[in-house]
Specification:
Elements lengths: L6 E5 L4 E5 L1 H5 L5 H15 L18 H18 L10 E4 L11 E3 L12 H10 L5 E4 L4 E3 L4 E2 H10 L25 E6 L4 E6 L12 H8 L8 E4 L1 H4 L6 H6 L9 E4 L5
Parallel strand pairs: 9-11
Antiparallel strand pairs: 1-2, 3-4, 3-5, 6-7, 8-9, 8-10
Bound molecules: iron/sulfur cluster (SF4).
Length: 272
């Protein structure tokens, strides 16, 4: 719905926020049928492989439970499959610039060990999308030379971000929230944040409505983290990335630890 005037959406894997402006409603946008028709046309235009589509809107919360469980089952299978491969097993990474409509210097780097920060696109999904629509928002990134294995710094990723951020950013460490961190748009499922008092990290997800251990709510940290900036100490991440063996491994190694998860001293219950 980034393409519908007057409608805003923010999607993560488990959360879908959508707002319809009163101005759009006043101009006559008063039926889900319109939204469904637009979405079907968009999907068919973007993905010519789709010949027919049907969209159902649920307005009763309890009715969504069954399809929700079905979707969760599919996600579980996809996660299981995604965990079977790692960065060293593949010769192609992928990028996504879908969120450049509101974060112009942001581009997601999607590798087997680093799922997109919205959590919606793993390496298999990105590969399929780039193949189905080679001119679309998802594209191939040949990794090129690996400059630093612990940090996850690759020639191809640096070149890609320099081009896609129009020269604003020229270096990314895939596995660090502290040095040359991956940019964050606004769709991240969670934030990895640095807690200087204990030289450790915290993780808070977007559904946590209380203040985190650093005294800040998710919304305040999200302002600091997002917008396509590279913000050491505030890194937008997906939930799946937390269970990756390479999760923020560079930050762990610089602290004398072996795994990124060991740097984490606090996380909210929802993340656990
Ligand atoms: S968060 Fe990244 S992968 Fe997800 S839609 Fe935005 S740019 Fe694409």
């Amino acid at each position: 719905c980034n393409f519908v005037n007057g409608i805003m959406h923010l999607n993560q894997r488990y959360t879908n926020w959508m707002r319809i402006s009163t101005a759009a409603f006043e101009k006559g946008f008063n039926s889900f049928q319109m939204l469904g028709t637009i979405m079907i046309r968009l999907f068919k235009a973007e993905l010519p492989i789709i010949e027919k589509a049907q969209i159902t809107f649920y307005t009763e919360a309890k009715e969504i439970l069954k399809p929700y469980e079905f979707a969760m089952g599919i996600y579980d299978k996809r996660d299981e499959r995604a965990r079977t491969i790692h960065d060293d097993d593949v010769d192609m990474f992928y990028g996504c610039v879908l969120c450049q409509s509101f974060a112009p210097t942001h581009a997601c780097c999607i590798t087997p060990d680093r799922t997109s920060l919205c959590g919606s696109i793993n390496w298999f999904d990105a590969r399929a999308a780039a193949k189905v629509d080679p001119k679309g928002p998802l594209f191939e990134i040949p990794p090129g030379e690996c400059y630093n294995k612990d940090a996850g710094e690759y020639q191809g990723i640096n070149e890609m971000i320099k081009k896609r951020s129009l020269g604003e950013i020229d270096r990314i460490f895939l596995f660090s929230g502290m040095e040359f961190p991956h940019t964050s748009c606004g769709c991240f499922e969670a934030i990895d944040f640095y807690i200087p008092e204990v030289n450790g990290h915290g993780i808070v997800d977007r559904n946590y409505s209380d203040v985190a251990i650093n005294g800040l709510p998710f919304s305040a940290m999200a302002n600091q983290t997002g917008g396509g900036k590279q913000m050491p100490g505030f890194n937008g991440i997906s939930i799946q990335y937390i269970v990756s063996p390479k999760y923020q491994q560079y930050d762990a190694i610089t602290q004398g630890l072996s795994q990124g998860i060991e740097t984490v001293v606090w996380m909210n219950k929802g993340v656990k």
